[in-house]
Write a structure and sequence with these properties.
The protein is built from 1 helix and 12 strands. It starts with a strand and ends with a helix. A 5-stranded antiparallel beta sheet has the order 1-9-6-11-4, with no helix packed on it. It has a 5-stranded antiparallel beta sheet with strand order 8-7-10-5-12. It is mainly beta and 134 residues long. The protein has one helix spanning 124-131; strands at residues 4-7, 10-13, 16-19, 33-38, 46-51, 56-62, 65-70, 76-81, 86-90, 95-99, 106-111, 120-121. Bound molecules: thymidine-5'-diphosphate (TYD). Thymidine-5'-diphosphate is lined by residues 33, 35, 37, 46-47, 115.
């Protein structure tokens, strides 16, 4: 499974816009947790891990940032998240780096699992070795 972009429908009228992210519908899993990241300087790199169990959808609901995904076998992709109705689906066991945060960036992270620090792989070398079967 590869990361892919989601385009949430924007429900709008004269009062403004509304975007819905419903589990197993707009987001391709049962939602167990949300968290959000803000106040990161432009030169900060966050993430820098892969998850054994969690799948994610990331949405920059304000501002922008970039997300680099890596499968450990040379398939590296960069996504710029800069619209509140654009989501990035990230499957299990994909390395992710979030960076180039705008000062107003709020990155909403929707996850398929509750927080469990033991499901994080925090060494890229170990991750790549595992993904390459070495
Ligand atoms: P961290 O995973 O380093 O953030 P990121 O990957 O987005 O750069 O998390 C920062 C801190 O917050 C760390 O002490 C763990 C804690 N944390 C939780 O307690 N629950 C959570 O769901 C998340 C994502 C982090």
């Amino acid at each position: 499974m590869k990361p892919f972009l989601l385009n949430f429908p924007q429900r709008g009228d004269e009062r403004g816009w509304l975007v819905v992210a419903e589990g197993n519908k707009d987001v391709p899993f049962d939602i167990k947790r949300i968290f959000y990241i803000y106040g990161s300087e432009a030169n900060v790199v966050r993430g820098q891990h892969a998850n054994r169990k969690s799948e994610f959808v990331l949405v920059n609901i304000a501002g922008s940032c970039k997300v680099k995904t890596r499968n450990g076998m040379g398939d590296d992709r960069v996504f710029e998240l800069n619209r509140p109705n654009m989501g990035l689906y990230i499957p299990r066991m994909v390395w992710k780096d979030m960076y180039d945060f705008s000062p107003d960036s709020i990155l909403l992270c929707i996850a398929s699992e509750p927080y469990d620090p033991n499901e994080y792989v925090r060494s890229y070398e170990a991750f790549a070795q595992e993904m390459n079967g070495t």
